[in-house]
């Protein structure tokens, strides 16, 4: 059994006109929901170009901070390359490392040898369904002057991520297959309204 922690996920997107129908169906199938508003910063290693030149994909770091609850700290996490489609054809399964950061994530990441690459805000809704979290959001761009989010246009695509809420280890008690089945169940529930699929990020 692997010592890695994993994320199991499916992804989708839809137009604003379908928001109400999709919200209703997800709400009916979830135990709880809350507003989602967060900022995510993506960092890449200083030597990421060297990695690419030598044919290896650099490991990106991501810092995420929830904005709906004041005083929430940063969470720093990184994903490794998704496992091959041959091994997991139905869902994206990728090793997932998470670190809680005390203080400023940007300083912490730069001390680890990382540069800030991009920053986005996400605003929408987060639903809990058993061990899964379903996030529906629109991306908000950053105003270069104020560094504050600019509300998304009405016609901005909505993105959906269905995944385990916390990293999981592949053990006999919590096999990955259990989580793959759980995300596939959501895929089936949304059929006809929303196409959820695996994605090689």
UniProtKB/TrEMBL annotation:
Keywords recorded for this protein, A-Z: Activator, Nucleus, Transcription, Transcription regulation
Q: Does the keyword Glycoprotein apply?
A: no
Task: Provide GO CC annotations from the record.
Answer: core mediator complex; mediator complex
Which InterPro entries does this entry report, sorted A to Z? Mediator_Med18 (IPR019095)
GO terms of molecular function: transcription coregulator activity
Task: Tell me where it resides.
Answer: Nucleus
Question: What family does the Swiss-Prot or TrEMBL record give for this protein?
Answer: Belongs to the Mediator complex subunit 18 family.
What is known about its subunit structure? Component of the Mediator complex.
Q: What does this protein do?
A: Component of the Mediator complex, a coactivator involved in the regulated transcription of nearly all RNA polymerase II-dependent genes. Mediator functions as a bridge to convey information from gene-specific regulatory proteins to the basal RNA polymerase II transcription machinery. Mediator is recruited to promoters by direct interactions with regulatory proteins and serves as a scaffold for the assembly of a functional preinitiation complex with RNA polymerase II and the general transcription factors.
Spell out the protein name for this chain.
Mediator of RNA polymerase II transcription subunit 18
What species was this sequence derived from?
A: Jaapia argillacea MUCL 33604
